[in-house]
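Researcher: Here's my situation. A collaborator sent me these components and asked whether they could plausibly form a single complex. I don't have experimental data yet, so a predicted model of the whole assembly would be a useful starting point for our discussion.
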Amino acid sequence: MMNEKLKWLFSPGSVAVIGASDSFDKLGYHVMKSLVKGRYRGAIYPVNPKAEKLWGIRTYPSLKDIPGEVDLAVIVVPAPSVPGTLQECGQKMVKGVVLITAGYKEIEDSQGETLEGEIKEIAGRYEIPIIGPNTFGFVNMTDGVNASFTYEFSLIKKGGVTLISQSGGFCHLCGFLAMEERMGMAKLMSLGNRVNVDFPEALRHFIEEDDATRVIALYIEGLDEPRGLLEMARSMGGKKPIIAYKAGKSEKGDSASRFHTGSLAGKYEIWKGALRQARILEVTSAEELIDTAKVLDVCAPIKGNRIAVLSGQAGPGMIAADALEDAGLKLAGFTTTTQEKINELLPPVAIRTNPVDMGPAWYSPKAMLDILKVTLEDEGIDGVIFIAMFASANLEVTKTMEGLMKDIEPFKKPVVACFTAPAGVWDEEIKRMDGEKGVAIIHTPERAAKAMGNLWKMQLIMR
Amino acid sequence: MMNEKLKWLFSPGSVAVIGASDSFDKLGYHVMKSLVKGRYRGAIYPVNPKAEKLWGIRTYPSLKDIPGEVDLAVIVVPAPSVPGTLQECGQKMVKGVVLITAGYKEIEDSQGETLEGEIKEIAGRYEIPIIGPNTFGFVNMTDGVNASFTYEFSLIKKGGVTLISQSGGFCHLCGFLAMEERMGMAKLMSLGNRVNVDFPEALRHFIEEDDATRVIALYIEGLDEPRGLLEMARSMGGKKPIIAYKAGKSEKGDSASRFHTGSLAGKYEIWKGALRQARILEVTSAEELIDTAKVLDVCAPIKGNRIAVLSGQAGPGMIAADALEDAGLKLAGFTTTTQEKINELLPPVAIRTNPVDMGPAWYSPKAMLDILKVTLEDEGIDGVIFIAMFASANLEVTKTMEGLMKDIEPFKKPVVACFTAPAGVWDEEIKRMDGEKGVAIIHTPERAAKAMGNLWKMQLIMR
């Protein structure tokens, strides 16, 4: 029953905003903005007893006055009026709730805990799944539903990564990094105080019910009962790759977690082992989370750890080579056939062994592309890191970049690329090709190597 | 003598471009573009026997036809004609040379080595310092001299960081990252094959002779005689902070270095110890190099390792707290006075101990600023990490950000900030305040913590 309702919650045909507003300093303003400017295509029902129209949309004094069905209610009214509002949601047979309002279990005042108990009881009685309280909401990029107070998340590219987070702030950090790095997302959500939708429920939903989700990223601060999450992850049996960022590692961070979401972060060392056993790959920074999720979403699976580095400049190729070995990968030797072909394509002045310095082929995009293809054909190579730094003289490389897309997909091997240029120079080409045909573009050579390493680690976890 | 000439080389009153061109596919075109579009204020003398005017500037058939003195000659003619050209430079009493042409010691053909020997001999005879061969050149942001084939480096912000690199590709990577991260630079150079200007000469110059350089970053692949660099660094006695990125750590990377710049990278473990002994702080990625150099350049010195984290959102504050401890810093407790003041500024719903969650003060930029000031006044706090994620509802935070600048300088403590927002939202404010009044803005909470940690490590190295 709750499982069925979660589908309606995340892809609602109609949304009521309880506490809708047209004044900028109210969260009800920003939720309305997210739905309206985020181009939500279902019915929007603003609820506010003091207005007849908000955002140009007919407004209702209360939930029960809304004529049609309400699939999702987003609640932003003050904490003490939430139990009454939830009761109304139950009576109206609302299928799901996003409860943005804060001031419950996470505050020092014991009244918060009492109120949260009430909410839980009402939600249970009417079987309403609740995201929150104390959440920024969720964003469904797949269907264009921004049920959060941050409109800008509607600008994130559509894709296969879903982030289930225990912190709204972390969603903001990752959401903006995702925009910068052109990572495609399916859903973005903060669980808040997890009154009845916790990690296991969300994880099950996105693995079992949401085809658009291909990769799951978790941000975990602390859980009183981590077993539910871990067992759910394990039972999903490697159906979709799951990565996790565990915060609250230090003692102080741990006590901050206690206040933030009302639960202890717990001993990090225990978490580390438990994640591994649950087939979850741990990442240790927001940028690593973004890079890894992106590569897992767009690249072909990797079958081994033998990597070739092809770089337009020797230095960046060398640092990628160093970083590869740190990431558990190997710089592979080429077969004789491959080496002979590369020797034909590159003059002796170049470094023609792995990591290859394609410098002398700078002015021949065709030669660079041919080197890439020859390398992908090599049975001893499982993946390629392709690097090019812009220089005033090599605008031609743009053609190579675009060419990459068209030809490499049939090889079914991961290609992680790093194209570095001043703002505005290659932006359009990078935007067009990133994520297409199995190529992921990653910000620096070191991060490209690390992301490729995580692709391999995930392969080991999932098989 | 050579020392005196290096000053002219890096800040020339006149530049001759030998091999100047107006066709896009020649490096001589791009060097001209760098000087002209980069707004070099001295005299430019294009040299090309086949043209009378290039880039609208009178062009000379050879060096000796130039009427005035030539401080710097940038040479892009083919390798075999370089010895003759250098001879002419000597006769013309040119003070310094940038030799972009490649094809010497780094190539497999033994002719390269012979030619390089000739060059060295001529340079020695006339006492001409040469940057290169096999270099992209150098850029002097301080005085607006772009003697390289990449015009776009002229867009880098002016500042105190000088990068001395053994790879031109790495200069491109770091230069573009510097632009993205608004890092101010003094000079950017690639040594190339180091015929007579090597790390020790460049290091001495930028420490002793260049006031604009406040921080030195080195990118090292491998040196046959590392002692010169290490002894020079040590003898400079901590006059300016020096950081280094050592590439070619792996065996394969090492052999790539052999081809790239004609010298072995050498055992990494030995390098690690040697750098430490030479009072050089090692960094291990291009992004860490940028972040660390920037913080060293713009922040006040740090006197201890007790840090406060003030964050607009709990999650990003927690991950900064975790990263701090990994970076060798400590999350400090507040004194009773500080704690009492923070308790007045923040309601009990907030996390008021370190890491502080300023969430409830979101709508009061004044309260956020007051918390920052109270924390900086605390004698038990040596530095502050200040974090704010944009959300649609908190545009007001912009005011806090701008306010930061005006008030925090008198405290003489480092403030590393992390302001994350979608492109276009806070860009102007971030640009205005970054690097001003002791505030460095770093891309993510984890990187902010790492950069602050490196500030402390450098403090330990230099004292």
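Model: Some features of this prediction you could bring to your collaborator: The two ends of chain A are 33 Å apart (CA to CA). Chain A touches chain B through 86 residues (CB under 8 Å).
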